[in-house]
Give the backbone structure.
Amino acid sequence: MEESRNRFHQMVVDIKEGFDALGASRGLRLAFGQVSIAVLVLFMLYTLAPAYVSKVIGIAAQDTYLILGPATAGAILSALLLGQFLRHLDRSRVLAGSLLANGVTLLALASVPAALHQFPDFQTHNRLTGAAFSFLLGVEFGAIMIPAVTYLMEATSDHIRGRIFALLYMVINGVSAIPVLVAAALADAIGPAQVIGGLGVLLLGGGLGVIVGGLHATEQKPKPVQ
């Protein structure tokens, strides 16, 4: 019993140290939020994919690979490119640009295939259109995720890094179920395209907030938080 109490107390101390580190660095808060948002959006898209392909694109729900496959390929390509060129880029601009681009692409993913339903001659292009926008989403997802994770690694010391990532995983695993369930319920109520479009608007707002707020929190050589 005493050992269990000690372990619980140590867990509470570790979580508190993680929160203290985030509170002391605006850069860490931005990167932390960036990763959290990216993962939550990804979970929502995976949840909405079957309804999207069946109701918007007009194919079987089992054919979600049409959306998920290109998105995965785009994320891999983004990781390869950013791995080569990220050190030469302003990460705050990469963040703002990727949020804006992701928002625009989500809006296009929600509206363009649905609009093609009005033109029977272009109906055959729905699959290609959905796959193309999904590929772009994968590239943009990597552009949101990779700089943030890199910053979290570079801006934290060995002592605090594990606590930050443990806190990140706790937030993602504990909170992600709520928006995913809400997205599924909204998709049943108003349609998956409208929910995806709403996510696009939220990401556009986040990108504009980064630009207006001038959060240049990702310096090239951040000083590790102890």
